[in-house]
Amino acid sequence: MADGALLRGTGIGKRYGGVTALDGVDVEVRAGEVLGLIGPNGAGKTTLMDVVSGAQDLDAGTLTLAGRPLAGAPWRRARLGLARTFQHPQLASELTVAENVLTGRLAARHSSVRGMAASMLRGLLSTATGRDECARLAADMGLDDPGRLAGELTLGEKRVLEVVRALAQDPQVMLLDEPFAGADATGIAAIMEAIRTVRRRGHGVVLIDHSVDLVASLAERVVLLDSGRVVFEGTPEECLASSEMRAVYFGGGYDRT
Ligand SMILES: Nc1ncnc2c1ncn2[C@@H]1O[C@H](COP(=O)(O)OP(=O)(O)OP(=O)(O)O)[C@@H](O)[C@H]1O
Known about the structure:
It comes from Actinomadura yumaensis. The chain is of the alpha/beta class.
């Protein structure tokens, strides 16, 4: 393992029926870095996040976080220091902005809170410590009414809220699946600042976005996936200049063996 590797996946494989979504993927996220994950539709980016976060079981390979095996249900992985956001935000619509952020904090300290009835959850959250801090965290990222229901937010605000909730976990590694899609300029700036905060803390970020330029501007390293395989890995500059990048996005050949 390279020095400073926080998250490490080796030989990751995942099939959905007859579809090979991931095929022998090796990936590593180092302390204090943003790893950009790019590739065309269907390349396997979200599936990689799914198997890392525990939303899907992997069929082959191993995962470690800070040297410890990463396995089990998503809430177990959250307690080990993994946080993620989703391509389609998964918030508790009946809970407020501040309460949703608190669920992130609780996920890192206790067992899963997802799926609980909102009323039970609200009772639990009303006694949870850190309520004001969570409201402040949301306000700092532009969500300045902590009492609004998450269900009433715009898509862009929901994305910001998911990132704030992930940040509230103080994760070792944060997985962000297209966090900028639908966010306005304020939201994009807030999410970028959250990414920089995680990096400053010496933690790691995995970032998926369809905007290769945006990923390149934030990431120290980029992994290019195509048909479930890593076809290039390097700095953004190296990746953008590679023949693999041209082949994947503009057609043409590269050695796929
Ligand atoms: N739940 C699922 N059931 C069956 N097939 C799936 C499922 N999720 C993903 N796939 C398939 O696995 C492959 C990888 O999909 P994945 O969503 O991981 O790619 P992606 O790179 O995230 O694509 P996009 O950029 O479009 O989100 C695709 O062929 C997709 O159709």
